Amino acid sequence: MIMNVVKKLKTQTILACLVLLVIVSSSSFGVTGSQVAQDNRLGYEIAINGTHAFVTNNEGVAVYTIEDTSAPARVGQISLGGEARGITLVENVLYIGALSRGLVIANISENPTDPTILSEYILGDYVTEVCIDGNYAFISSGFGETQILDISDPSNLDVLGHLPISELTLDIAVSGSTVYVARPNSGLRLIDVGNLNSPSILSLVSDTSGARDLHVQGDLLYVARGTSGVSIFDISDSASPVAIGQYNDGGHSFGLHGDSQYLCIADLQEGVELLDISIPESPVEIAHYEDAAPHDLIYKEGYAYLADQDEEFLLIDIVSSVTYSNSSSPTTGGTPNPSLFVSIVLVFSAVFAVVIVLVIMLKKRY
Q1: Burial of 36 (0-12, 13-18, 19+ CB in 10 A)
Q2: In angstroms, how far is CA 250 from the centroid of its own chain?
Q3: Under 8 Å between Cβ of 49 and 8
Q4: Is the dihedral of CA 355, 356, 362, 366 positive or negative?
Q5: How does pLDDT run across 10-39, given as a tens digit for each residue?
Q6: Number of domains composing the chain
Q7: Cut 0.90: pTM above it
Q8: Residue 200: helix, strand or coil by DSSP?
Q9: 205 with 74, same domain?
């Protein structure tokens, strides 16, 4: 009976199936919209608002529209005369750590691609990290000092104090009167800034070497530690963090961001990982997208916005565009990606094509 069916098949049908297989297999999975920068610019850190993403790179800051999450577009470049690293967006004001111009404060309310520069402040040779807490900015010059600025009047910055550290600093976070400083060589350092004019060292948290990125969510502090994964601390007493959890899949955790239930990890080797942290003592990976090399990311409503090593910027629908490792699923404000349907078509097309070829070979042989 099978041989009778095969006799009725036309060569065009077989070719059409093979063409369908090629087309489907070449489709892009996992990225609802991706934008590859010209000249393969390197993306370092990222900030977003409701309409735009801002990615620091070797020339300043790249600007992307993200209102349509399925079709982000690169719409401009804020030129700063050289490399920029740290970036924070508060309302309509960007705070940028530029290597040649120091801290650059820019208003994007009128034109995000050509913002109004409010002020600049040089710290040592350059500024790499920027953390904003209310009217205060904590800025680091990388290997040099870290300063506290009063930014209540952006056009007239006032230096308040200096953090008593000089080692390489990769990130800064604030909770109450405690500043957390990520230092890859020695780990997580706590600074008391109850007196902004005279900060003092509180402690060095043990077993936190490799610390490079920080995320505070309520009473929890998440620390990305490179090849040591992610450490989770209870900071309900901000001056005395208590280790309560750990996650490490053997990759290289560069950055992290999330909300009260989900944590997204920028893993330079493994791509993007989404964890269910509803039980922070036992984080569980629920999604994984491998085709990226992110330095930094922001997670918002089911989407991951990446500053990528190879493609500068990627926007990933982490909810519907990846293979889940269990049944947990975050909610999303976006339109689901049809990748599941495409995957099913791919599998059935491949099986059908292989069966047809095998039957034809058997027919010729016998």
Answers
A1: middle
A2: 18
A3: no
A4: positive
A5: 444 444 443 333 333 333 334 444 444 444
A6: 2
A7: no
A8: strand
A9: yes
* Residue where the block lists tokens 């290289």: 252
Q: Which residues, 6 or more positions from 60, have their beta carbon under 8 angstroms from its beta carbon? A: 77, 78, 79, 80, 81, 82, 84, 96, 98
Instruction: Output 18-27 pairs: Cβ under 8 A, ≥24 positions apart.
Output: 18/353, 20/345, 20/349, 21/346, 21/349, 21/350, 21/353, 24/342, 24/345, 24/346, 24/349, 25/346, 25/350, 27/342, 27/346
Which amino acid is it at 245? G
Q: What is the dihedral of CA 15, 18, 23, 28, to 10 degrees?
A: 180
Averaged over 124-145, what is the pLDDT? Answer: 86
346: containing domain: 1-30+339-366
Tokens of residue 338, six digits = 């049809």
Contact 202, 192 (CB under 8 A): yes
Query: 185 and 278: one domain?
Result: yes
Same domain, 357 and 323: no
Lookup: tokens for 308: 């990528």
Q: What is the CA radius of gyration of the chain?
A: 24
For residues 62 and 153, membership in a common domain is answered with yes
What is the reported pLDDT for 145?
Answer: 80
Q: Are residues 44 and 75 in the same domain?
A: yes
* Nearest-angstrom CA–CA distance, 307 and 292: 10
Mode of pairing for the β-strands spanning 178-183 and 187-192: antiparallel
Cα(271)–Cα(254) distance, integer angstroms: 10
CA separation for the pair 94, 290 (Å, rounded): 30
